[in-house]
Structure formats: structure tokens, C-alpha cells
């Protein structure tokens, strides 16, 4: 147990570091991009964007004019603004995948398999009286109940619950025969979870790097074509 706790702490620390390594540069790039795009848009020649004050239609026309007059700066502005939500979201997805890999790499997959097995046992008892329900409805009900069991688990910390919920979200349980023998159902679910975890390789950070490079490329293009 002590060894598992140490490994979980190590994985949580590495996952947190990976999250920060994406969010901090991403937010910084977004801030710089926002400042540059606003500066370049504000120094465009012409009457400006006064029409944007004339209600929704004026605002839409203002945006259209903005892209027409300074295309690259406008794209940079939109991307930089969305970066404040985009980079934390990307970081969360990446670090959860990395945590799954580290869990398997450190031979802790059995811990999560056992947890899910316990949840399945409890849920199968709950849905015993609902076997007449349509398969699609029953599937949604089971997944909902499994996530509820994760939430109620007092022996699992917040970080472990994130991994468990991620697994329940990603593992395809649509073709499980919920009306079959509970033991067979449990075996089928655990087999799917094990297959999913076992197939996970170290997630690629390529798309993260591309998203960090893209605003920089747009800054260069904005300075070249939109600076007056």
C-alpha cells in the first residue's frame, strides 16, 4: 500500500508538471498575441469600427470589416482570445492520457481494475430490477450509476477519480449485454478497461506544440502584412 501511495504521488506530481508546462506557455503566448493583435488592429488606417456600436448587425459588420482590413491580426486576436480556454482544456486531456500511461507503466492498472470491479458489482445489484428496460436506456443508466459510485468513493482521491471517470468515459460499453449474467457482464467490462489501458502509449505532444507555434507564426504574419 505504501509503495502504491508513493507511485500515485509520483504520477500525480508528473501529471501536474505536464499540465503546467502546457498551460503557462499557452497563456503567455495568448496574452502576447492578444496585445499584439489589439495594437495592430487599433493602428489600421480608415474610419475604424464605429459601426460595431450599432447593435448586433453593426457588431457583425465590424467583425467582417476587421477581417477584411487586417486578416492576420484578426485571426491572431480570435486565436489568442480562445487560447485562455483552449490551452487548459488541451492540458487536461493530455495529462489524463499521460496519467493513464504512467499508471500502466508503473503496474498500477490492477488498482483501477479492482475499483471498477467493485463499482460494477454494486451497480449490477441496483439495475437487477430494471432488466426489462431497453438496452440503450439501460446502458446510459449503468454508466451514470458507475460515475456516481466513483463520486461516492471516500477511499479514492480527486486525482484518482479523474482517471476513473476518464476511463468510464472513453471505454466503449455500448455492446455490453447488461441483461446477461452479472459475473459475465463484469468480466466483459473489465476486459474492455484492461484492453483500453493496455493499448495506451505515451500520448503525443505534437498537437500541443503545434498550437503553441501557431500563434507565433500568426504574430510574424500580422507584423509583415498588417503593420502600417
Number of H- or I-type helical stretches:
8
Radius of gyration over C-alpha positions, nearest whole angstrom: 24 Å
Order of H and E elements: HHHHHHHH
Structural class: mainly alpha
For the terminal residues, how far apart are their CA atoms?
Answer: 65 Å
What is the helix content?
Answer: over 70%
What is the mean pLDDT? 82
Strand content: under 5%
Largest sheet: none
Poorly predicted residue ranges? 47-52
Description:
With 228 residues, the chain is mainly α. Helices cover 79% and strands 0% of the residues. It has helices at residues 2-42, 55-69, 71-105, 109-126, 135-152, 158-170, 182-199, 206-226. It is elongated, with a radius of gyration of 24 Å. The N and C termini lie far apart (65 Å). Residues 47-52 have low confidence and may be disordered.
Brief sketch in words of this structure:
The protein has helices spanning 2-42, 55-69, 71-105, 109-126, 135-152, 158-170, 182-199, 206-226. With 228 residues, the chain is an all-alpha fold. Helix 1 runs antiparallel to helix 3 and helix 1 (2-42) packs parallel to helix 8.
Provide the fold topology.
Elements (H helix, E strand, L loop, with lengths): L1 H41 L12 H15 L1 H35 L3 H18 L8 H18 L5 H13 L11 H18 L6 H21 L2
Helix pairs in contact: 1-3, 1-8, 2-3, 3-8, 4-5, 4-7, 5-6
Question: What distinguishing features does this structure have?
Answer:
mainly alpha, 8 helices, single chain, 79% helix
Amino acid at each position: 500500500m505504501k509503495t502504491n501511495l508513493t507511485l500515485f504521488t509520483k504520477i500525480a506530481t508528473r501529471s501536474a508538471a505536464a499540465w503546467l508546462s502546457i498551460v503557462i506557455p499557452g497563456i503567455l503566448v495568448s496574452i502576447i498575441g492578444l496585445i499584439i493583435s489589439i495594437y495592430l488592429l487599433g493602428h489600421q488606417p480608415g474610419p475604424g469600427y464605429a459601426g460595431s456600436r450599432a447593435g448586433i448587425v453593426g457588431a457583425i459588420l465590424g467583425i467582417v470589416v476587421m477581417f477584411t482590413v487586417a486578416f492576420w491580426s484578426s485571426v491572431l486576436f480570435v486565436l489568442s482570445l480562445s487560447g485562455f480556454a483552449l490551452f487548459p482544456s488541451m492540458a487536461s486531456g493530455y495529462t489524463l492520457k499521460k496519467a493513464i500511461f504512467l499508471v500502466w507503466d508503473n503496474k498500477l492498472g490492477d488498482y483501477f481494475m479492482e475499483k471498477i470491479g467493485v463499482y460494477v458489482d454494486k451497480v449490477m445489484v441496483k439495475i437487477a430490477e430494471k432488466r426489462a428496460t431497453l438496452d440503450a436506456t439501460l446502458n446510459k443508466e449503468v454508466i451514470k450509476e458507475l460515475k456516481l459510485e466513483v463520486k461516492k468513493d471516500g477511499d479514492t482521491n480527486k486525482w484518482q477519480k479523474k482517471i476513473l471517470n476518464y476511463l468510464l468515459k472513453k471505454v466503449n460499453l455500448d455492446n455490453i449485454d447488461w441483461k446477461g449474467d452479472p459475473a459475465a457482464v463484469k468480466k466483459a467490462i473489465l476486459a474492455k478497461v484492461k484492453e483500453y489501458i493496455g493499448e495506451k502509449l505515451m500520448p503525443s505532444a505534437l498537437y500541443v506544440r503545434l498550437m503553441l507555434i501557431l500563434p507565433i507564426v500568426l504574430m510574424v504574419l500580422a507584423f509583415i502584412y498588417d503593420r502600417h
